[in-house]
Amino acid sequence: MKRIFRLVLFILFSFIAYNCSDNKCNESVDVELKAEIIVKDTILENANFIDSLSIYSPLWLDSVHYSSINYLLDLSPFSNTTTFIFTSQLWKDTVWILHERQLVYLSQECGFVNYYTIDSAWYTSNNIDSIEWVNKKLTTQNDGHLKIYF
Amino acid sequence: MAILRYTSSLILIIVFSFQLLAQTTEEKKEPWKLSGIKAGLDVGRFSNFLFKPEQRSYAGSIDIGFNNKRYFVGEFGYSEISLNRENYDYRSNGTFYKLGFDYNMLKKVPTDFLGAGLRIGYSLLEHSASSILFNSSHWGNYYLEQQAETNQTMWFEASFGIKGEVLKNIYLGWSTVLKVRLYGGKDDSFQPYDIPGYGNATKSIIIGANYFIYYQIPFNRN
Lengths: 150, 222
Fold this sequence. Notes:
The structure holds two protein chains of two kinds. Chain A is mainly beta. Helices cover 12% and strands 43% of the residues of chain A. In chain A, the strands form two sheets. In chain A, strands 3-2-5-6-7-9 form a six-stranded antiparallel sheet, with no helix packed on it. A four-stranded mixed sheet of chain A has the order 4-1-10-8, with no helix packed on it. Chain A is elongated. The relative contact order of chain A is 0.22. By secondary structure, chain B is mostly beta strands. Chain B has two helices and eight strands, in the order H-E-H-E-E-E-E-E-E-E. Chain B has helices spanning 2-28, 48-51; strands at residues 34-42, 55-66, 70-84, 89-104, 113-136, 140-167, 170-184, 205-217. An eight-stranded antiparallel β-barrel of chain B has the order 1-2-3-4-5-6-7-8. The termini of chain B are far apart. Classes of the chains: A mainly beta, B mainly beta. At the A-B interface, helix 1, strand 6 and strand 7 of A face strand 5, strand 6, strand 7 and strand 8 of B.
């Protein structure tokens, strides 16, 4: 009895559990604001201004030009205000977004991301009619959503 | 309120468990007699050198046996993590303590152990992160730091295992452990990488295993 007991003990003791992990980040780490452009002004619509629409921030290294009605925008990682400039051939509008940042440890593999909570926004009205927040929380779920009406 | 509910339930479980043990004692009319003290070392943690090289953790235990049936058990340990990733460095250090008891169901081999145990565990850790690299095509590369934060966790453990005397006064022990977090450990923004004594901080229930070597202080042995 005692021998069997010890044998079982040794077999169990020799088993060492370990975690299987590929050490790769397998989830999205992008935290972006979906900006949906909605054109109500018929003059702008007829001018196909979306085709010439570009979006940039003064602190960005580049600009965005997709000829699209949906843009995914990165908010500032080091400031609580992000400025976006919407420019086309004949007009320019600026949108300032005030937000809070939360540094989040997503996982060991993926590291850290910034989550954002939008506080408020204001804008110039050269061509922008109004803005509407669908979701003011930005996480890796691509849930932040802003509608901009022209 | 949830903490109070969990804590009161746990206290009730422990109290009733002791009552059950006491009833058995009364039935047999066996007086409590100190049967031995074991000092243990968690050798399962040394597998970290292979599988989790970023972690150093050490744990020991003391159990005081009565009649080779009932054991009051205390466990304690220290854990240190130094994780260097491409996009961040993570540091953590903390301690844990567990208190509880084991009940031996063996009758024919009284010096060995086959039984169950209950523990209440507590952990306190401090962790921080630095050189957190954000790489953005729009904003460029930039670095942030996460200031040090402390984190407390309390959990409940139920275990089932065996201990066998392989050499005189030397025992090997193995047990499966079910851990249920009672409070703490969770942080929406800065989740600990690992909670000392508990494990993966993202899980509320953990099933694991312990591997111990024990030395029985040789006194009062038949």
